[in-house]
Amino acid sequence: MDPNTNHIVIHEFPPIFRIYKDGHVERLKGTEVLPPLVNPKTVVQSKDITISPEYVIRPTITLRT
Q: Origin, by domain of life (predicted)?
């Protein structure tokens, strides 16, 4: 892989974060890092995040464990 392509931004969500072509994520705004919650009944980890308080965009991220 060409090392110059590592710094290509493929998605940007200002002022929250950027996602780069190589997969790494850069946080632009200071956020408190908390571990996701694990639901033992569904075996799913979930965490609520706020993307835009102005437009009330608050998705829940889920990940099967």
A: Eukaryota
Strands, E, within the chain: which ranges? 9-13, 17-20, 25-27, 37-39, 44-48, 60-64
CA distances from 46 to 2, 10, 52 (A): 35, 25, 19
pTM of the model: 0.43
Computed on alpha carbons and rounded to an integer, the radius of gyration of the chain in Å comes to 15
Q: Which two tokens stand for residue 57?
A: 């965009």
CA pair distance 10, 60, nearest whole angstrom: 22
Contact 38, 47 (CB under 8 A): no
Q: How crowded is the C-beta side of 60, counted as CA atoms within 13 Å?
A: 7
Tens digits of residue pLDDT in 21-48:
888 888 887 666 667 777 788 878 888 7
